[in-house]
Write a structure and sequence with these properties.
The complex is a heterodimer of chains A (327) and B (297).
Chain A lengths: L2 H12 L2 H19 L7 H17 L5 H23 L4 H20 L4 H4 L10 H5 L7 E4 L2 E4 H25 L2 H11 L1 H6 L4 H27 L9 H14 L5 H26 L8 H22 L8 H4 L4
Antiparallel strand pairs in A: 1-2
Helix pairs in contact in A: 1-13, 2-8, 2-11, 2-12, 2-13, 3-4, 3-5, 3-11, 4-11, 8-11, 12-13, 13-14
Chain B lengths: L8 H4 L13 E12 L2 E12 L3 E5 L6 H8 L7 E6 L2 E2 L5 H6 L2 E3 L12 H7 L9 H4 L6 H17 L15 H13 L5 E5 L7 H16 L3 E5 L3 H7 L2 E6 L2 E6 L1 H4 L3 H8 L14 H4 L7
Parallel strand pairs in B: 3-8, 3-9, 6-7, 7-8
Antiparallel strand pairs in B: 1-2, 1-4, 4-5, 9-10
The chains are: A mainly alpha (327), B alpha/beta (297).
The structure holds adenosine-5'-triphosphate and magnesium ion.
Magnesium ion binds next to helix 2 of chain B.
Chain lengths: 327, 297
């Protein structure tokens, strides 16, 4: 077992497009849950709606990439309106139920044969990446950074993806330190109190749902652009709960939390995979086979998340003081 | 003991003093407001008017419907029927935030401090007309920072007044029950409301501070704010109110200036049941019975 190699792999994974997607979705969920207190269990669908919105705009509507991205964002905003308008006046749990159900409906809808001319059905779509890759300004070749090396196309995705993360995080920081963000936090604490102070709580919740959804949709777009492929089976409730794990790991009411949480989560997955794979290979875990590892690994991660939520509810990067009063 | 500078009755009320009597200058008028919970009629107010610029107490035994009436007037609950207007504007069916924006701000009997916001942030949230509270403006700090400074100044003055200045940077969650009551009241004042509706503002507040708060409420009055408050503390009611409205079983059973209302037979009956001849005005205020409510989270 090559520990150094395992660590190298993990380090590489920490910056991978998957991490970028998780981080963006978790940042969006931080707006929903951490700052506004909205229980959204359909973050996968927000990502999927953005991704499909963009891909279909390129594939069927033949729009240029820039407009297609805007279409993707628009789709996720409309999606937020569809979910939010009927539920956000009701108790918090209604949004949770509706989002989880709608996410599943959306996924099944995308696999339906009837619409597969547009959606690609269960095979998805893959003929949309040309313009994205053509925009890559980095010359062909391999680029070495100490012990990791990247191809030009990989570097390109990093630049776009992490660029989006950094810009997004800075915008969130501005928002959450503004009076607007204060209203959101007030709503999280007690929406009736905020109402009694003359704030249109429903509208703020709707805005929060849209903004968090936009973050997820950007995450979704980067995910599918990197693969040059969009498939319905990616956007499962599993995906959503992974995002929740990332968020809770980092700290729900923070901006740094989801970013670091995403990187650590991915690194943990990669390291446990590597170590357990190595142990199985060495015959030290005779009762396990390689395919079991993926399952066991998730189990371990689930367990550690439970411990984290119990013993450090504010997440790794949350404010300790803030959760001392957890009620 | 009663309010020294008391306003003469004919400056408040037109005609005979009776439940639902018309006021010279009403700020709030409610008509036929009825709210039923299943078979129980919690509020059934035929007609009531709140005089502008004065301090009005709404009293009545537990379960009389005072809080429910507050909820209805401010849009937090919907009545089965009825109409009410604030400064001539019909409020029926209006959402709570719009009611608040008109200048009618209420506090809650069960305190609603925003726990994981600091005391000063709680206060700032009470202010109106902060352009930074709209999404796009919030991104550009210069557009709202000046208003934020104004707001903070007002907030600090109020915090001092309410003896919360030492707690400025603490989370509201770390405040005691009484302090939360104070914070909620101070926060409600941030927007300089035309009518402030306080649901048991003094429940759980220590007597020394009560006096300073009573003074503050009187100051509000002299600045032109109308005050409507629910209170079980008869001492406070007698001390600061110009007008008292008594509810029992959802109905307005009596109203008038504090000195006469406390002697009203209907009021005594409502509070103590029939066959009792105690003068409510002399009723003492056992602190233990009145601080029970309002502290629960
Ligand atoms: N949400 C509700 N569902 C059912 N019944 C209710 C509800 N809210 C209030 N009630 C009933 O309505 C009546 C009036 O309650 P309310 O809270 O308005 O009384 P109150 O005058 O404020 O009393 P207190 O002085 O104890 O605060 C009570 O009998 C109460 O049980
Ligand atoms: Mg009450």
């Amino acid at each position: 077992m090559d520990i150094l190699n395992i660590l190298k792999l993990a380090l590489g994974e920490m910056l991978s497009p998957t991490t970028i997607t998780f981080v963006l979705c978790a940042l969006g969920l931080a707006v929903h849950f951490g700052f506004t207190g909205l229980l959204n269990f359909g973050q996968a669908a927000f990502a999927a709606v953005g991704a499909y919105g963009m891909v279909i705009s390129i594939d069927t509507l033949k729009l240029p990439l820039f407009l297609a991205v805007l279409m993707g964002l628009l789709c996720s905003i409309i999606f937020a309106l569809i979910l939010g308008i009927p539920t956000l006046r009701l108790r918090a749990d209604y949004l949770a139920i509706v989002t989880i159900a709608t996410a599943e409906v959306f996924r099944y809808f995308m696999t339906t044969i009837g619409f597969s001319k547009v959606t690609g059905g269960s095979n998805g779509l893959s003929q949309f990446g040309a313009e994205f890759w053509a925009l890559n300004p980095i010359p062909e070749g391999n680029y070495n950074f100490g012990f990791v090396s990247y191809r030009a196309d990989q570097l390109y995705v990093f630049m776009v993806g992490w660029g989006a993360v950094i810009i997004g995080a800075l915008i969130l920081r501005l928002l959450m330190r503004s009076p607007w963000g204060r209203v959101l936090k007030g709503i999280r604490e007690d929406e009736d109190a905020v109402r009694s102070l003359g704030k249109n709580v429903f509208f703020y919740k709707l805005q929060a749902l849209m903004i968090g959804g936009v973050f997820a949709s950007i995450g979704g777009m980067i995910f599918v652009l990197n693969l040059s492929n969009v498939q319905p089976q990616v956007w499962t409730t599993n995906f959503t709960f992974t995002i929740w794990s990332v968020l809770l790991l980092g700290g729900a009411a923070t901006i740094l939390g989801p970013i670091a949480g995403g990187m650590i989560f991915i690194a943990l997955i990669s390291i446990t995979q590597g170590i357990m794979g190595g142990l199985v290979e060495l015959g030290l875990l005779p009762f396990l086979t390689q395919p079991d590892i993926a399952q066991i690994r998730l189990l371990l991660i689930g367990l550690s998340l439970m411990l984290l939520v119990i013993f450090r509810p504010q997440g790794l990067f949350g404010n300790k003081r803030e959760t001392q009063f957890n009620v | 003991m009663s309010n020294s500078k008391s306003v003469s009755i004919d400056k408040i009320c037109i005609g005979e003093v009776a439940p639902g009597c018309r006021k010279v200058d009403p700020i709030l008028i409610a008509d036929g407001v009825k709210r039923q919970f299943g078979g129980l009629t919690a509020v059934d107010v035929a007609h009531v008017e709140i005089p502008r610029g004065l301090i009005t107490a709404l009293i009545g035994p537990n379960g009389a419907g005072k809080t429910t009436f507050f909820n209805l007037l401010t849009g937090f609950d919907k009545p089965n029927q009825g109409n009410w207007s604030f400064e001539g504007q019909n409020l029926a069916g209006m959402s709570p935030y719009k009611v608040a924006r008109l200048g009618m701000i209420r506090t809650f009997q069960l305190t609603k401090a925003l726990s994981l916001l600091t005391v000063i942030e709680n206060m700032r949230l009470g202010a109106q007309k902060q352009p930074g509270e709209s999404f796009l403006t919030s991104l550009i700090r210069p557009l709202w920072i000046r208003r934020e400074k104004e707001i903070t100044e007002v907030a600090d003055t109020l915090l001092k007044r309410f003896k919360l200045d030492a707690k400025r940077e603490d989370y509201a969650a770390s405040l005691s029950g009484g302090q939360r009551k104070l914070l909620e009241m101070a926060r409600a004042l941030m927007s300089e409301p035309k009518l402030i509706m306080l649901d048991e503002p003094m429940a759980g507040v220590n007597p020394a501070l009560t006096q300073s708060l009573l003074d503050h409420i009187k100051d509000l009055k002299s600045n032109g704010t109308t005050v409507l408050f629910v209170e079980h503390d008869m001492h406070m009611v007698r001390h600061i109110s110009d007008w008292v409205i008594v509810m029992a079983e959802g109905k307005v059973v009596a109203e008038g200036p504090p000195s006469t209302v406390m002697k009203d037979q209907a009021v005594i009956d409502a509070y103590l049941g029939a066959h009792h001849d105690t003068d409510l005005g002399t009723m003492s205020k056992p602190a233990s019975t009145r601080s029970k409510k309002g502290d629960t989270k």
